[in-house]
Amino acid sequence: MEIGVLLHTRQIIRQEDAAKSFDQLWSDAARAEELGFDHIWLGDSVTVLDKARGDCLTTMAALAARTNKIRIGAVPMLPALRNTVLLAHALATLDVISKGRIILGVSVGPVRDYIQRQFAACGVPPQEKAGRLSESIEIMRRLWNETTITYDGRYFKLDDVGILPHPAQKSGIPIWIVADQNDNGFKRVGRLGDGWVTLAPTVERFAAAREKIDQYAQEQGRAKKCPVSAIYATFNIQTDRNRARDEGWKWMERFFEQPKEKLSYHFTIFATPEECVRLLKGYAEAGLTTIIARIASDDVTGQARLLLNEIKPRLD
Question: Which terminus, N or C, of the chain has the lesser number of Cβ atoms within 10 Å?
Protein backbone atom coordinates (compact mmCIF):
# COMPACT_ATOMS: atom_id res chain seq x y z
CA MET A 1 0.00 0.00 0.00
CA GLU A 2 1.38 3.41 -1.01
CA ILE A 3 0.36 6.55 0.87
CA GLY A 4 0.72 10.08 -0.43
CA VAL A 5 -0.20 13.34 1.26
CA LEU A 6 -1.90 16.44 -0.10
CA LEU A 7 0.08 19.61 0.59
CA HIS A 8 -2.20 22.50 1.49
CA THR A 9 -1.62 25.67 -0.53
CA ARG A 10 -4.88 27.61 -0.32
CA GLN A 11 -4.06 29.18 3.02
CA ILE A 12 -0.74 30.35 1.59
CA ILE A 13 -2.41 32.39 -1.13
CA ARG A 14 -4.91 33.85 1.31
CA GLN A 15 -2.08 35.46 3.26
CA GLU A 16 -1.39 39.09 2.44
CA ASP A 17 2.31 38.62 1.74
CA ALA A 18 2.11 35.59 -0.56
CA ALA A 19 5.52 36.37 -2.09
CA LYS A 20 7.23 35.13 1.08
CA SER A 21 4.77 32.51 2.24
CA PHE A 22 5.76 29.56 0.04
CA ASP A 23 8.60 28.75 2.45
CA GLN A 24 6.04 26.82 4.53
CA LEU A 25 5.24 24.64 1.54
CA TRP A 26 8.89 23.71 1.05
CA SER A 27 9.07 22.76 4.73
CA ASP A 28 5.91 20.66 4.43
CA ALA A 29 7.36 18.81 1.43
CA ALA A 30 10.67 18.15 3.20
CA ARG A 31 8.79 16.84 6.24
CA ALA A 32 6.63 14.54 4.09
CA GLU A 33 9.74 13.09 2.48
CA GLU A 34 11.47 12.65 5.83
CA LEU A 35 8.43 10.96 7.39
CA GLY A 36 8.31 8.41 4.57
CA PHE A 37 5.31 9.29 2.40
CA ASP A 38 5.46 7.79 -1.08
CA HIS A 39 4.22 10.92 -2.84
CA ILE A 40 3.14 14.53 -2.30
CA TRP A 41 0.20 16.10 -4.13
CA LEU A 42 -1.04 19.55 -5.10
CA GLY A 43 -4.47 20.70 -6.23
CA ASP A 44 -5.18 22.59 -9.44
CA SER A 45 -7.35 25.67 -9.93
CA VAL A 46 -6.84 28.86 -11.91
CA THR A 47 -9.56 31.49 -11.68
CA VAL A 48 -11.51 30.24 -8.65
CA LEU A 49 -10.53 32.88 -6.12
CA ASP A 50 -12.10 31.28 -3.05
CA LYS A 51 -10.11 28.13 -3.89
CA ALA A 52 -7.04 29.94 -5.18
CA ARG A 53 -3.69 28.15 -5.35
CA GLY A 54 -0.36 28.83 -6.93
CA ASP A 55 0.05 27.34 -10.41
CA CYS A 56 0.53 23.61 -9.89
CA LEU A 57 3.14 23.10 -12.65
CA THR A 58 5.37 25.93 -11.43
CA THR A 59 5.05 24.76 -7.85
CA MET A 60 5.79 21.13 -8.79
CA ALA A 61 9.03 22.27 -10.45
CA ALA A 62 10.08 24.05 -7.27
CA LEU A 63 9.16 20.99 -5.18
CA ALA A 64 11.23 18.78 -7.49
CA ALA A 65 14.25 20.98 -6.85
CA ARG A 66 13.72 20.87 -3.07
CA THR A 67 13.18 17.10 -2.65
CA ASN A 68 15.21 14.05 -3.55
CA LYS A 69 13.13 10.88 -3.82
CA ILE A 70 9.46 11.47 -3.04
CA ARG A 71 7.14 11.40 -6.06
CA ILE A 72 5.24 14.57 -6.95
CA GLY A 73 1.72 14.78 -8.33
CA ALA A 74 -1.24 17.05 -9.02
CA VAL A 75 -4.81 15.88 -8.30
CA PRO A 76 -7.37 16.51 -9.60
CA MET A 77 -5.50 18.19 -12.45
CA LEU A 78 -7.52 19.65 -15.33
CA PRO A 79 -5.46 19.19 -18.52
CA ALA A 80 -8.30 20.44 -20.73
CA LEU A 81 -7.76 23.96 -19.35
CA ARG A 82 -4.40 24.07 -21.13
CA ASN A 83 -2.94 23.78 -24.60
CA THR A 84 -2.06 20.10 -24.82
CA VAL A 85 1.29 20.50 -26.63
CA LEU A 86 2.52 23.11 -24.16
CA LEU A 87 1.30 20.98 -21.26
CA ALA A 88 3.06 17.88 -22.61
CA HIS A 89 6.28 19.88 -22.97
CA ALA A 90 6.05 21.39 -19.48
CA LEU A 91 5.34 18.02 -17.86
CA ALA A 92 8.13 16.25 -19.72
CA THR A 93 10.56 18.96 -18.60
CA LEU A 94 9.26 18.60 -15.05
CA ASP A 95 9.86 14.86 -15.17
CA VAL A 96 13.45 15.40 -16.28
CA ILE A 97 14.02 18.01 -13.54
CA SER A 98 12.64 15.59 -10.93
CA LYS A 99 14.54 12.59 -12.38
CA GLY A 100 11.37 10.71 -13.13
CA ARG A 101 9.19 11.46 -10.09
CA ILE A 102 6.07 13.04 -11.64
CA ILE A 103 2.54 11.52 -11.46
CA LEU A 104 -0.73 13.02 -12.71
CA GLY A 105 -4.21 12.50 -11.31
CA VAL A 106 -6.35 14.03 -14.07
CA SER A 107 -10.03 14.87 -14.11
CA VAL A 108 -12.77 16.15 -16.38
CA GLY A 109 -13.81 18.38 -13.48
CA PRO A 110 -17.09 18.22 -11.57
CA VAL A 111 -20.29 19.73 -12.93
CA ARG A 112 -20.31 22.71 -10.60
CA ASP A 113 -20.83 26.33 -11.56
CA TYR A 114 -17.38 27.50 -10.46
CA ILE A 115 -15.72 24.78 -12.56
CA GLN A 116 -17.82 25.66 -15.61
CA ARG A 117 -16.84 29.32 -15.23
CA GLN A 118 -13.17 28.36 -14.89
CA PHE A 119 -13.22 26.52 -18.21
CA ALA A 120 -15.03 29.41 -19.92
CA ALA A 121 -12.47 31.88 -18.55
CA CYS A 122 -9.63 29.78 -20.01
CA GLY A 123 -11.26 29.70 -23.44
CA VAL A 124 -12.55 26.12 -23.24
CA PRO A 125 -16.29 25.53 -23.74
CA PRO A 126 -17.35 23.56 -20.63
CA GLN A 127 -19.33 21.07 -22.74
CA GLU A 128 -16.07 20.07 -24.48
CA LYS A 129 -14.05 19.31 -21.35
CA ALA A 130 -14.52 15.50 -21.37
CA GLY A 131 -13.59 15.09 -25.04
CA ARG A 132 -10.64 17.43 -24.69
CA LEU A 133 -9.35 15.48 -21.70
CA SER A 134 -9.35 12.21 -23.64
CA GLU A 135 -7.63 13.75 -26.66
CA SER A 136 -5.09 15.50 -24.40
CA ILE A 137 -4.12 12.19 -22.80
CA GLU A 138 -3.72 10.53 -26.19
CA ILE A 139 -1.59 13.39 -27.54
CA MET A 140 0.63 13.72 -24.48
CA ARG A 141 1.36 9.99 -24.43
CA ARG A 142 2.41 10.08 -28.07
CA LEU A 143 4.48 13.25 -27.73
CA TRP A 144 6.32 11.69 -24.79
CA ASN A 145 7.17 8.52 -26.72
CA GLU A 146 7.46 9.42 -30.42
CA THR A 147 9.84 11.68 -32.34
CA THR A 148 6.98 13.49 -34.12
CA ILE A 149 3.27 12.88 -34.33
CA THR A 150 0.35 13.72 -36.60
CA TYR A 151 -3.05 13.79 -34.92
CA ASP A 152 -6.49 14.44 -36.37
CA GLY A 153 -8.94 14.74 -33.50
CA ARG A 154 -12.17 16.58 -32.91
CA TYR A 155 -10.51 19.27 -30.79
CA PHE A 156 -6.82 19.04 -31.67
CA LYS A 157 -5.14 18.72 -35.07
CA LEU A 158 -1.35 18.35 -35.24
CA ASP A 159 0.90 17.88 -38.24
CA ASP A 160 4.41 16.48 -37.72
CA VAL A 161 4.81 17.86 -34.18
CA GLY A 162 7.43 16.76 -31.64
CA ILE A 163 8.81 17.91 -28.31
CA LEU A 164 12.07 17.60 -26.38
CA PRO A 165 12.94 16.61 -23.79
CA HIS A 166 10.95 13.44 -23.45
CA PRO A 167 10.12 12.41 -19.86
CA ALA A 168 12.77 10.69 -17.77
CA GLN A 169 10.31 7.83 -17.17
CA LYS A 170 10.79 5.66 -20.22
CA SER A 171 7.13 4.73 -20.58
CA GLY A 172 6.03 8.31 -20.00
CA ILE A 173 4.50 10.03 -17.00
CA PRO A 174 1.84 7.86 -15.25
CA ILE A 175 -1.67 9.23 -15.75
CA TRP A 176 -4.26 8.27 -13.14
CA ILE A 177 -7.80 9.27 -14.08
CA VAL A 178 -10.41 10.47 -11.58
CA ALA A 179 -13.80 8.77 -12.00
CA ASP A 180 -16.53 8.18 -9.43
CA GLN A 181 -20.07 7.53 -10.64
CA ASN A 182 -20.18 7.99 -14.39
CA ASP A 183 -19.85 5.00 -16.73
CA ASN A 184 -18.18 7.23 -19.31
CA GLY A 185 -15.56 8.01 -16.70
CA PHE A 186 -14.94 4.34 -15.98
CA LYS A 187 -14.64 3.68 -19.71
CA ARG A 188 -12.07 6.50 -19.95
CA VAL A 189 -10.03 4.93 -17.15
CA GLY A 190 -10.17 1.51 -18.80
CA ARG A 191 -9.19 2.89 -22.21
CA LEU A 192 -6.57 5.45 -21.23
CA GLY A 193 -5.59 5.22 -17.56
CA ASP A 194 -2.43 3.94 -15.89
CA GLY A 195 -4.44 4.19 -12.70
CA TRP A 196 -7.76 5.22 -11.20
CA VAL A 197 -8.53 7.81 -8.49
CA THR A 198 -11.84 7.81 -6.64
CA LEU A 199 -13.70 9.27 -3.68
CA ALA A 200 -15.93 6.16 -3.48
CA PRO A 201 -17.31 6.37 0.09
CA THR A 202 -18.11 2.66 0.44
CA VAL A 203 -16.23 -0.54 -0.30
CA GLU A 204 -19.21 -1.78 -2.32
CA ARG A 205 -19.12 1.20 -4.68
CA PHE A 206 -15.35 0.96 -4.97
CA ALA A 207 -15.42 -2.77 -5.81
CA ALA A 208 -18.23 -2.38 -8.38
CA ALA A 209 -16.41 0.48 -10.12
CA ARG A 210 -13.10 -1.38 -10.16
CA GLU A 211 -14.84 -4.37 -11.75
CA LYS A 212 -16.29 -2.14 -14.49
CA ILE A 213 -12.90 -0.54 -15.17
CA ASP A 214 -11.24 -3.95 -15.50
CA GLN A 215 -13.98 -5.05 -17.89
CA TYR A 216 -13.60 -1.92 -20.05
CA ALA A 217 -9.81 -2.24 -20.04
CA GLN A 218 -10.06 -5.85 -21.22
CA GLU A 219 -12.44 -4.82 -24.01
CA GLN A 220 -9.81 -2.31 -25.17
CA GLY A 221 -7.04 -4.91 -25.12
CA ARG A 222 -5.54 -3.29 -22.00
CA ALA A 223 -6.00 -6.02 -19.40
CA LYS A 224 -3.78 -5.30 -16.36
CA LYS A 225 -2.58 -2.01 -17.94
CA CYS A 226 -4.37 0.03 -15.24
CA PRO A 227 -3.09 -1.51 -12.00
CA VAL A 228 -3.35 1.49 -9.65
CA SER A 229 -6.52 2.07 -7.61
CA ALA A 230 -6.28 5.14 -5.39
CA ILE A 231 -8.75 6.65 -2.95
CA TYR A 232 -8.60 10.36 -2.21
CA ALA A 233 -9.70 10.65 1.41
CA THR A 234 -9.56 13.12 4.30
CA PHE A 235 -8.26 11.79 7.62
CA ASN A 236 -8.44 12.63 11.29
CA ILE A 237 -7.42 9.72 13.50
CA GLN A 238 -7.87 9.78 17.29
CA THR A 239 -8.22 7.20 20.02
CA ASP A 240 -11.68 8.69 20.60
CA ARG A 241 -14.05 8.52 17.60
CA ASN A 242 -16.11 11.55 18.66
CA ARG A 243 -12.99 13.65 19.06
CA ALA A 244 -11.82 12.60 15.57
CA ARG A 245 -15.12 13.66 14.02
CA ASP A 246 -15.34 16.89 15.96
CA GLU A 247 -11.77 17.95 15.23
CA GLY A 248 -11.91 16.79 11.61
CA TRP A 249 -15.06 18.68 10.71
CA LYS A 250 -13.99 21.82 12.55
CA TRP A 251 -10.76 21.80 10.55
CA MET A 252 -12.66 21.25 7.28
CA GLU A 253 -15.10 24.09 7.92
CA ARG A 254 -12.26 26.43 8.79
CA PHE A 255 -10.10 25.43 5.82
CA PHE A 256 -12.85 25.48 3.17
CA GLU A 257 -14.71 28.38 4.82
CA GLN A 258 -17.97 26.49 4.37
CA PRO A 259 -20.37 24.67 6.72
CA LYS A 260 -20.25 20.90 7.01
CA GLU A 261 -23.46 20.53 5.00
CA LYS A 262 -21.71 21.84 1.87
CA LEU A 263 -18.70 19.55 2.27
CA SER A 264 -20.51 16.21 2.14
CA TYR A 265 -18.94 15.28 -1.22
CA HIS A 266 -15.58 14.74 0.49
CA PHE A 267 -14.71 11.19 1.52
CA THR A 268 -13.81 11.54 5.19
CA ILE A 269 -12.29 8.98 7.54
CA PHE A 270 -12.59 10.52 10.99
CA ALA A 271 -12.11 7.49 13.21
CA THR A 272 -9.99 5.49 15.64
CA PRO A 273 -6.93 3.64 14.29
CA GLU A 274 -8.79 0.32 14.59
CA GLU A 275 -11.81 1.64 12.65
CA CYS A 276 -9.53 3.13 10.03
CA VAL A 277 -7.66 -0.15 9.52
CA ARG A 278 -10.87 -2.16 9.37
CA LEU A 279 -12.34 0.12 6.70
CA LEU A 280 -9.19 0.33 4.59
CA LYS A 281 -8.62 -3.43 4.74
CA GLY A 282 -11.96 -3.83 3.03
CA TYR A 283 -10.83 -1.50 0.26
CA ALA A 284 -7.48 -3.28 0.00
CA GLU A 285 -9.24 -6.63 -0.43
CA ALA A 286 -11.26 -5.04 -3.26
CA GLY A 287 -8.10 -3.88 -5.05
CA LEU A 288 -6.99 -0.64 -3.38
CA THR A 289 -3.27 0.02 -3.97
CA THR A 290 -2.85 3.67 -3.03
CA ILE A 291 -4.13 6.30 -0.60
CA ILE A 292 -3.99 10.05 -1.26
CA ALA A 293 -4.53 11.62 2.15
CA ARG A 294 -5.67 15.07 3.11
CA ILE A 295 -4.95 15.52 6.81
CA ALA A 296 -7.73 17.48 8.55
CA SER A 297 -5.76 18.49 11.61
CA ASP A 298 -3.30 21.14 12.72
CA ASP A 299 -1.12 18.30 14.04
CA VAL A 300 -0.01 17.14 10.60
CA THR A 301 3.11 15.37 11.86
CA GLY A 302 1.23 13.42 14.52
CA GLN A 303 -1.46 12.36 12.07
CA ALA A 304 1.14 11.45 9.46
CA ARG A 305 2.96 9.18 11.90
CA LEU A 306 -0.30 7.43 12.75
CA LEU A 307 -1.00 6.84 9.04
CA LEU A 308 2.51 5.66 8.22
CA ASN A 309 3.46 3.78 11.38
CA GLU A 310 0.17 2.37 12.71
CA ILE A 311 -2.19 2.17 9.72
CA LYS A 312 -0.01 1.40 6.69
CA PRO A 313 1.84 -1.68 8.11
CA ARG A 314 -1.50 -3.31 8.90
CA LEU A 315 -2.73 -2.94 5.30
CA ASP A 316 0.16 -4.74 3.56
Answer: C
